[in-house]
Amino acid sequence: MSTHYSKAGYWFIAPAIILMVLILIAPVLIAAGLSFTDFSLGNQSFTWVGFENYAKMVSRSTYTKMLWASGTYVLIVVPVSIGLGLGAALLINSVKRFGDIYKTIYFLPVMAALLAMAIVWEFSLHPTIGIVNKTLASGCGGWMEAVFSWGWLPWVDGAQSWYATSCQEGFPLWFGDKTYTMWTICFIGIWQAFGFNMVLYLAGLTSVPRELYHAAEMDGAVSGWDQFRLVTWPMLGPTTVFVVTISTIRSFQVFDTVEAITQGGPSKSTYVMMYAIFEKGVKQNLIGMGSAITVAFMAFVLILTLVQRHLVERKVHYA
Amino acid sequence: MAGITLNQIAKSFGDTEVLKGIDIDIADGEFLTLVGPSGCGKSTLLRIIAGLESQDGGNVAIDGASVNAVRACKRDLAMVFQSYALYPHLTVRQNMETPLRLRDLNFWERLPMLGAMMPGRRDKLSALNGVVSDISETLKIDHLLARKPGQLSGGQRQRVALGRAMVRKPAAFLMDEPLSNLDAALRVHMRAELAELHRSLGVTFVYVTHDQAEALTMSDRMAVMMDGEILQLGAPDEIYKNPQDRRVAEFIGSPKINLFAGEVDSSGRITAFGVPLKRRVPSGAGKVSVGVRPEHFQLVEDHSDNERWPFTVTHKENLGSDFFLHGHINGSKQRTVARATPSAVASISIGAEIFLRPAPDAAMIFGEDNRRIHFHEGAL
User: Fold this and answer.
1) Which residues contact B345 (CB under 8 A, 6 or more apart)?
2) What is the ipTM of this complex?
3) Residue B257: DSSP 8-state
4) Is B150 on the interface with A (CB under 8 A)?
5) Within 13 Å, how many C-alpha atoms sit on residue B155's CB side?
6) Kind and range of the H or E run holding B361
7) Number of neighbouring beta carbons within 10 Å of residue A233
8) Are strands B16-26 and B4-13 parallel, antiparallel or unpaired?
9) How far apart are CA B115 and CA B106, in angstroms?
10) Which of B79, B82, B83 sits opposite A218 (nearest CB)?
11) Distances (CA, A) of B220 to A99, B29, B188, B211, B247
């Protein structure tokens, strides 16, 4: 073998490298650099502030609330939307008819612009003119209250139930009451995300070899649960890794609903990271702080992805 | 251990009739092969026996008891699949344990964490561990137990699939083309090994293949299937020597039997390529096919004999122990193959004109309806 290598190879990869540096790596490095400054757009100069921005993030209650809000959102939306997505995929896979109709229905929220849908939800959940509260209120005293106050269960006092008390004291302000807002935002997030997970799982299910189910049947896996544990779930391993990673990243990125409906409120209960970046970096022109949150955001996503890879790689079988 | 009885099994997929009333009686401990070209319905029949597919009509009975309403896993049968269908995420040991775990452990004992706390689970596990170890020793895969199927060769996977079928000591084994994913040498080797395994287990084997060599070498009896029907059922020797249908004669035997157009006159004399044969058949058959297997041709040196066909050699195939002579009889377009010993063909070069005749009694006559027409008893 000759020890002389042509340098022509570098010319071939140069466009890709240059583009990657320009639009991916450089902005990240600039953001990381700016996070140690108090820079604002339009200012001539800036001063280095060291770790001050990061110190604020752990000490100031606004930012601890931000971390709580993002954490809660991810921890609720990810498992629930994956569970629902898998469940819907399994159900659709098992029906012989109307499968395509269900697929379309569940996938519609994914295709729709979340910002527009957020406005629709805002109207639906409006405390006085919204369809949800109106429907709930119209059920007061009727069969709906009787059923959903759970008073017919022997161990439940119907009069103390959520429905009964709400009928007395009014139905919640879904986006105005601190106790409900995060849950409502999570609900919209799940509603929007699970169709996507369902489609990914449906794709995963088609790649499970039919013969494995037959083998499982011959081996005595009688119940659906046994077949699921022996064949379906392990075979969906690679899909699950992908779905979990994607869902987590997308949940960390939630912004549209918060911006359109709550603007991070009430009292910062829905102040998620993406919204914080937007508020600090864009609205208030505190580029330094915005960059610090961005870097923290990136670190979270990176750590999560690495942990997942490490935990899951050993367990998951790639055929 | 059990015999399997099939009675008028019928199955259609949409408008296509795949099985048209199959009757077979499989004796206890028998090695029965279902052989036929792809699409003949043999795999469907096997899956109906297994219970993975339900028949449209007819009866499946195991040990005399009808199992039409019995689920696949309750029929006490084990199946080896063409793709082996091993669980790719489980080790060889876990793969082989699976049928035993599902049978011997209850729902609670199989739960991931909770199961470990169940009393009696440990004894059951060590019992089934022992079974897996025994079987893996028999199959010589004990050194592979910790590996996953992805790390095994085709032959090793094949053994693991066999092992998974064996651990439960089922009433019968069903095998769906288990050797077709192996390379040629290994296939020949596994043929012998499977036949030995059958002998030592003494359990009923129902074996599906499209390879007539597998059927001939391994089975006690074979059923030749075509277009959803069993054309002939019998011992391999009988099927080969005495096919009752033209399609059977064509399918079994390699190289294929040579079939020539022939004619039967009013006295029952058969003429092919203008040469009358010595043996006669009942008259009135009209157009027939005369079948001669390659090994049933004789080279004719005695030019006084009338029963001989002129043959132009176009190709010589050397198999070491034998030669196959390819050529054309009497200038026809049809390619004919004849087997000869190396010493006999030494002097024959390509392009040579020689004479062939069928060995006495070896020609087979088939009518236009594909049925075999037997010779008259006694010569001439």
Assistant:
1) B316, B323, B325
2) 0.82
3) P
4) yes
5) 14
6) none
7) 13
8) antiparallel
9) 9
10) B79
11) 48, 10, 18, 16, 21
Query: Which residues of chain A neighbour B175 with C-beta distances below 8 Å?
Result: none
Pick from B78, B85, B98: CB nearest A214: B85
Q: What distance in Å separates the CA atoms of residue A153 and residue A158, rounded to the nearest whole number?
A: 9
Burial, B76: exposed, middle or buried (Cβ in 10 Å; 0-12, 13-18, 19+)?
A: middle
* CA nearest to B169 within chain A: A219
Place of tokens 């050194």: B143
A215 part of contact set with chain B, CB < 8 Å: yes
For A51-56, the CB contacts below 8 A with 24+ separation are A53/A288, A53/A289, A53/A291, A53/A292, A54/A292, A54/A296, A56/A289, A56/A292
Residue B373 · residue B282 · CB < 8 Å: yes
- Whether the pTM exceeds 0.90: the reply is no
CATH of B255-373, one of 2.40.50.140, 3.90.1200.10, 3.40.50.2300, 1.10.10.10: 2.40.50.140
Q: List, in sequence order, every residue forming a beta bridge with B233; answer none if it has no partner.
A: B223
In chain A, domain spans = 41-97+179-313
Instruction: Pick B71's closest partner by Cβ from A222, A231, A237.
Output: A222
Q: Are strands B353-358 and B336-340 parallel, antiparallel or unpaired?
A: unpaired
**Architecture in CATH for domain B4-246:** 3-Layer(aba) Sandwich (3.40)
What sign has the CA pseudo-torsion A196, A202, A208, A209? Answer: negative
Measured N-to-C along each axis, helices A114-124 and A178-206 cross at an angle, to the nearest 10 degrees, of 130
Q: Does A210 touch chain B (CB under 8 A)?
A: no
- How far apart CA B345 and CA B294 sit, in angstroms, is 14
Cβ of B73 under 8 Å from any chain A Cβ? yes
Residue in this structure with the two tokens 């006092």, named with its chain if needed: A157
A105 confidence band (pLDDT: 50, 70, 90): confident
Q: Give per-10-residue mean pLDDT for chain B (380 aa).
A: 86 89 91 91 91 89 88 88 89 90 80 74 83 87 89 88 89 90 86 90 91 91 91 92 92 89 86 84 82 90 78 90 90 89 87 87 87 73
Domain boundaries, chain B: 4-246, 255-373
A209 touching B (Cβ < 8 Å): yes
Q: Return the structure tokens found at B221.
A: 């009896």
A41-97+179-313 belongs to which CATH class?
Answer: mainly alpha
Please state the three-class secondary structure of A62-109 as a single string: HHHHHHHHHHHHHHHHHHHHHHHHHHHHHHHHHCCCCHHHHHHHHHHH
Residues of A in contact with B90 (CB under 8 A): 234
HSE-CB at B4 with a 13 A cutoff on CA atoms is: 32
Is B228 in contact with B18 (CB distance < 8 Å)? yes
